[in-house]
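Long-time lurker, first post. I've been practising inverse folding by hand and with some scripts of my own, and I keep getting stuck on stretches where the structure tokens seem ambiguous. Below is the full token string for one chain I'm working on. Before anyone asks, I'm not after the true native sequence, just a reasonable design that respects the backbone. If someone could post their per-position residues I'd love to compare against what I wrote down in my notebook.
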């Protein structure tokens, strides 16, 4: 999970929750009952962590090796002091973060329809917020998800309508993804965002990549003593200290004794 802090009382959180195969009568996942085959609860497995901050970027990398058939997972969070372009997605300096999940050497189980990634987003310390999406923005040709808190701050994350895959031949392809949620994504809901992104079966893929861009839009009518730069530096600090579970921290502490 990755936390974005506005102040001491308001905190947005986004997490990659599950990775699972599915079997559906169609191309994409259409119900949680479609889930089958190999699956991982991402907040319950142990991750190796690397984090650093320099004049060019601040990053946190989480990796997990040794999964079924030697599959590996990697989750990266990056913030840049200058505007960047990563995989045709623009990231604004200090005001946006880029999150990416990479799946390497995933061998699909027999007869499954594809692979699905579950994401969750919410405001922490309060139940008084609304979500909208993920909905498709025809102007930007991107999916958007918004979380609006009680004072009008908006947590937004944006992602392309495709997964990026690398084939056994070394070719890079964009494959259409499809979001699924058990709530109406076209209307406002007073619940955490909890949805799946499904990727149809890929016979010769060696790497699957999903990336998204996150930002917080402060309520322009609300004054605050916190400068814009201080606000974003607080967010960067949150990236550095974030991990997927307290169990992971305890394991690392024992290892370093």
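-- Answer (accepted) --
I ran through it position by position. Result:
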């Amino acid at each position: 999970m990755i936390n974005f802090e506005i102040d001491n009382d308001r905190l947005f959180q986004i997490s990659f929750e599950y990775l699972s195969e599915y079997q559906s009568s169609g191309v994409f996942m259409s119900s949680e009952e479609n889930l089958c085959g190999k699956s991982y609860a991402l907040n319950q497995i142990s991750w190796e962590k690397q984090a650093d901050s320099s004049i060019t970027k601040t990053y946190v990398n989480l990796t997990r090796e040794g999964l079924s058939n030697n599959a590996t997972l990697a989750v990266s969070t990056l913030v840049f002091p200058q505007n960047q372009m990563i995989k045709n997605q623009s990231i604004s300096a200090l005001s946006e973060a880029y999150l990416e999940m990479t799946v390497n050497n995933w061998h699909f189980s027999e007869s499954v329809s594809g692979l699905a990634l579950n994401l969750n987003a919410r405001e922490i310390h309060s139940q008084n917020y609304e979500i909208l999406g993920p909905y498709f923005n025809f102007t930007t040709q991107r999916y958007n998800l918004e979380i609006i808190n009680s004072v009008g701050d908006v947590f937004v994350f944006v992602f392309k309508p495709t997964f990026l895959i690398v084939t056994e031949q070394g070719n890079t392809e964009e494959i259409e993804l499809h979001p699924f949620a058990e709530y109406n994504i076209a209307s406002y809901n007073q619940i955490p965002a909890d949805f799946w992104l499904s990727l149809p079966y890929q016979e010769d893929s060696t790497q699957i990549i999903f990336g998204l861009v996150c930002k917080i839009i402060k309520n322009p009518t609300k004054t605050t003593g916190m400068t814009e730069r201080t606000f974003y530096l607080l967010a960067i600090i949150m990236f550095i200290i974030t991990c997927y579970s307290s169990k992971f921290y305890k394991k690392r502490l024992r290892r370093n004794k």
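A couple of notes from the structure itself: The domain at 2-247 is CATH 2.70.98 (Beta-galactosidase; Chain A, domain 5). The chain is about 10% helix and 50% strand. Happy to go over any region you disagree with.
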